[in-house]
Design a protein that fits this description.
By secondary structure, the protein is α/β, with parallel strands linked by helices. It contains 13 helices and 20 strands. The longest helix is centred in the last third of the chain and has 27 residues.
């Protein structure tokens, strides 16, 4: 399709982005550099002696041609997504609700019968597909990590494989083409994006619909979510850049909307051109993007605000630590690793990061630090003066729950502007 970057999984190497991942243009402008970040899911056991570990430059680039915002280095996915990859979508209520809502919305856009096949790329533990399966449709998951075994145990057939031509051809031969193909929180993660879209088209019925959900550049800019910048996220789509990509493959965006997952994402429906009417939502969102301005020039203001936010958080924490107060982090989502490493937090500033009981992350250090991740009960036992909400995008929901469970301290909300939150 283009002279876009290619990196074969399993090389163990990384490839600098010297041309746009979508249009191939070499006219890339640097937007923001967050330093050298460790892989967000490589967490070392507590007590392990510190030793040499990989870290990769995290630079945000904007294509001057198609306006795609993208990471400046592609890292081998086998490094970023190890077999023991800890993320499980079914444990997050907002995701469960989102996938249920997607299914209901999907039925209003495309007629679905019991014979129709629904395929989810990066299907994780099968939470999304369970809605379609319970609705009486055939389902097939494709998931490269061990999370797929959870889905299989629940009766949601899942192939354990990275999505590519081999698995697409195999699924098509066994199951036929799909009326719906979904890719949620994964379409911005996969390298060689033109190959991916070609393989989606290989599996997609002539009247099929491809639904993607990705972190949304507009939300990232509006709420200063620099913490969502890490190497798993190769691209940060606006609707404009996503439309550009899909159009290159003969796909037409027929519906688009902002959704609340991951602090602000975009859900996009696409089909072969002329198959379905284009809803007014598409132009409305494009107009909104044009008003805000998501080009390289406008994004320099984003960089300035990121730097100020980092300094403001340092200032806030300086006053707190001068008074001898303790700060415990709450939650260890992937985005917390970027915030902690970019701001420069260590175990002298944040004593612990707390996770719910049973989390795969407890008993380990936060990436790139010696901050231990332990069970949430420590918050209520020790009663530190401050809790740093690393899942700050759900602060209004999270803080009252922790107070109700017995925490008596105050909360630090680090973004978009660092502030102290008191819950009565």
């Amino acid at each position: 399709m283009t002279n876009s970057l290619k990196l074969s999984a399993g090389t163990g190497s990384s490839v600098p982005v010297d041309r746009c991942q979508v249009c191939g243009s070499t006219d890339l402008k640097s937007i923001l550099f967050l330093g050298y970040l460790p892989p967000v899911n490589q967490m070392r056991p507590i007590g392990q002696v510190p030793h040499e570990q990989p870290a990769y430059p995290a630079e945000l680039l904007c294509c001057q041609n198609c306006q795609l915002v993208q990471i400046g280095l592609i890292v081998d996915p086998n490094i970023l997504f190890p077999p023991e990859y800890p993320y499980t979508s079914g444990t997050t209520r907002i995701l469960r609700d989102n996938f249920a809502e997607m299914y209901e919305e999907c039925k209003t856009i495309i007629p679905l019968s019991s014979e129709d096949l629904v395929i989810d790329i990066g299907s994780n533990d099968g939470t999304l597909l369970s809605n379609f399966q319970n609705g009486g449709h055939r389902v097939q998951g494709i998931e490269p990590t061990q999370r797929g075994e959870i889905a299989n145990e629940k009766g949601i057939e899942t192939a354990i494989a990275f999505f590519g031509k081999d698995i697409a051809t195999k699924v098509k031969a066994e199951k036929g083409t799909a009326k719906v193909i979904t890719a949620t929180n994964v379409f911005a993660h996969i390298e060689n994006i033109h190959d991916i879209v070609d393989n989606i088209l290989l599996l997609l019925d002539e009247k099929g619909v491809f639904i993607s959900e990705s972190h949304y550049l507009l939300s990232l800019v509006e709420t200063l979510q620099y913490d969502t910048i890490y190497h798993e996220h190769l691209r940060y789509y606006s609707l404009q850049s996503l439309q550009y990509l899909l159009n290159m493959h003969g796909l037409e965006v027929i519906h688009a909307k902002k959704i609340p997952t991951h602090g602000g994402s975009i859900r996009v429906y696409a089909a072969r051109k002329g198959t379905y009417p284009v809803k007014p939502t598409v132009q409305a969102l494009l107009d909104k993007e044009a008003t805000v301005g998501l080009n390289a020039e406008k994004l320099q203001d984003f960089k300035h605000k990121v730097v100020l936010s980092k300094l403001q958080l340092h200032s806030l924490l300086l006053d707190i630590k001068k008074q001898g107060h303790r700060v415990y982090g709450i939650g260890a989502p992937s985005r917390a690793s970027t915030l902690i490493n970019y701001v420069g937090l260590d175990d002298g500033i944040v004593d612990y990061v707390l996770e719910v009981k049973g989390s795969y992350k407890t008993g380990k250090y936060m990436p790139g630090t010696l901050i231990p991740v332990i069970e949430e009960s420590k918050l209520f036992e020790d009663q530190p003066e401050y809790a740093l909400l690393l899942s700050w995008h759900i602060a209004d929901e999270l803080a009252p729950k922790l107070t109700q469970k017995g925490f008596k301290g105050k909360y630090i909300v680090p973004l978009p502007v660092p502030r102290i939150l008191e819950v009565k």
